[in-house]
């Protein structure tokens, strides 16, 4: 089984600023405030959290489901929390 990655780089959809963020292992983060421009953004429709929409790595619950489900769950948009 692959290790769950607990850091993701979030890119602001407004200004493009990227910040390295720690992800919670037992919850999804619905909102994030950009440290550069103060825009508060939410996930895109169909995604469970800002990490799944704007992060370099999806949130830990999604990572865990994808590992458990196998290769077919690794497609974009599959099995968000």
Short description:
With 81 residues, this protein is an alpha+beta fold.
Overall description:
Helices cover 19% and strands 17% of the residues. The chain is of the alpha+beta class and 81 residues long. The two termini are 19 Å apart.
Question: Can you lay out the helices and strands and say which pair or pack?
Answer:
Blueprint: E1 7-11, E2 18-22, E3 32-33, E4 40-41, H1 50-54, H2 60-69
Antiparallel strand pairs: 1-2, 3-4
H/I helix tally: 2
Measured on Cα atoms, how large is the radius of gyration?
13 Å
Structural class comes to alpha+beta
In the sheet with the most strands, the strands line up as 1-2
Q: What is the 3D form?
A: elongated
Mean pLDDT: 87
Compute the separation of the termini in Å.
Answer: 19 Å
Query: How large a portion of the residues is in β-strands, by DSSP E?
Result: 15-25%
How much helicity do the residues have? 10-25%
Low-confidence stretches: none
Q: In sequence order, what are the helices and strands, one letter per element?
A: EEEEHH
The number of distinct β-strands equals 4
Characterize the largest beta sheet: strand count, sense, and whether it forms a barrel: 2 strands, antiparallel
